[in-house]
Amino acid sequence: RRERQRFVDKNGRCNVQHGNLGGESSRYLSDLFTTLVDLKWRWNLLIFLLTYTVAWLVMASMWWGIAYLRGDLHQAHDDTYSPCVANVYNFPSAFLFFIETEATIGYGHRYITERCPEGIVLFLFQSLLGSIVDAFLIGCMFIKMSQPKKRAETLMFSRAAVVSQRDGKLCLMFRVGNLRNSHMVSAQIRCKLIKSRQTPEGEFLPLDQCELDVGFGTGADQLFLVSPLTICHEINSKSPFFCLSQRSLRSEQFEIVVILEGIVETTGMTCQARTSYTEDEVLWGHRFLPVMSLEDGFFRVDYSQFHATFEVPTPPYSAKE
Fold first, then answer.
1. Is the pLDDT of residue 29 over 80?
2. CA gyration radius for the chain?
3. CA distance 5 to 227
4. According to CATH, where is 1.10.287.70 located in the chain?
5. For the CA atoms of 24, 25, 31, 35, what is the dihedral angle to 10 degrees?
6. Could you read off the pLDDT of 285-310 as tens digits, one per residue?
7. CATH code 2.60.40.1400 region(s) in the chain
8. Would the pLDDT of 258 be above 70?
9. Which residue, among 304, 254, 312, 301, has the nearest Cα to 280 in the 3D structure?
10. What is d(CA 15, CA 278) in angstroms, rounded to the nearest whole number?
11. Torsion sign across C-alpha atoms 137, 95, 99, 88
12. Residues whose CB is less than 8 angstroms from the CB of residue 44 and which lie 6 or more positions away in sequence, other chains included
């Protein structure tokens, strides 16, 4: 079957783009910090470099302008003359003085004299502006680097979901795993069924979302994810798959979105991993191969068999039948 458009990709990226915002696009500027954090790395680095470059050139030009208006550039080599900033002869020297002041390097060759009130005011303004720019941009880069999105890449989902019997009941199952030794604290899993439908009143609901119970009432959705786990959705009278059979599965069109959330143990930040399964990725009458084995004093997980399934006898009828 031709691959259709997904709502959520296998890597968790949501295929939704917002367009025709009109005047609502100004809301992005009202929350500028979050907007910068959400940008891609190349745009973040470009804004970071341009902001500092422009700020440095503007502030250096202001120091050079003070020296030019006071006539310090023409009398800088006169030992009897007291300039605003000592040893500032031209724009490069004014730029070096600004950098020394901003970075608190202080080589000692260039300094402000006490006979320059406008220089003192500019120095205070530079200190305040530099602190604000540093806090904003460096804070943005720090948040960008510490985002737990990369942690989600070490959380695995099986490529396919399976339908088979467990404890005498027809169940939809998939597997999740954690590749790192560090744990996910308070890990919780949720499932959404994305399927278009029409109401009895004739209203068409595209991409309608329906909750799939994976143990909310029993606490089975709270995971202790130290080894691969098989998540089970019991297909009963409350399940949207109650009338789904092996034959009707071929003509259905739906998408199951899986959301795994938890707190990263090492950083304390909340992490979310997502994936999805279309009807083509649901295998009827299959079960996952075991991946756990007992070694000498520990349990070993064989991730080479993480996605592997095998066929088991399963009635081709729906749970209702």
1. no
2. 31
3. 32
4. 24-146
5. 150
6. 999 999 988 888 888 988 899 999 99
7. 150-311
8. yes
9. 254
10. 14
11. negative
12. 36, 140, 141, 144
Q: Which fold has domain 24-146?
A: Helix Hairpins (1.10.287)
Nearest to 221 by CA among 254, 274, 258, 246: 258
Quote the crossing angle between the two packed helices 91-102 and 117-146, to the nearest 10°.
60
66-90 pLDDT per residue, tens: 888 888 777 766 777 778 888 888 8
Find tokens 């909340």 and name the residue: 270
**Domain 150-311 in CATH: superfamily?**
G protein-activated inward rectifier potassium channel 1 (2.60.40.1400)
The mean per-residue pLDDT over the stretch 20-26 comes to 72
pLDDT of residue 266: 80
pTM listed for this prediction:
0.75
Q: What is the DSSP letter of 259?
A: E
Closest CA to 168 of 284, 316, 315: 315
Strands 169-178 and 161-166, sheet pairing: antiparallel
DSSP-derived letter for residue 1 is -
Which residues lie below 8 Å from residue 173, measured CB to CB, with a gap of 6+?
161, 162, 163, 164, 166, 230, 231, 232, 233, 287, 288
Q: Which residues contact 79 (CB under 8 A, 6 or more apart)?
A: none
Which of 51, 126, 54 has its CA nearest to residue 85? 126
Residue 2 amino acid letter: R
Hey, how many other C-beta atoms are within 10 angstroms of the C-beta on 156? 18
> What distances in angstroms separate CA 298 from CA 156, 233, 292, 293, one per listed residue?
22, 30, 10, 9
Q: What pLDDT score was predicted for residue 90? A: 87
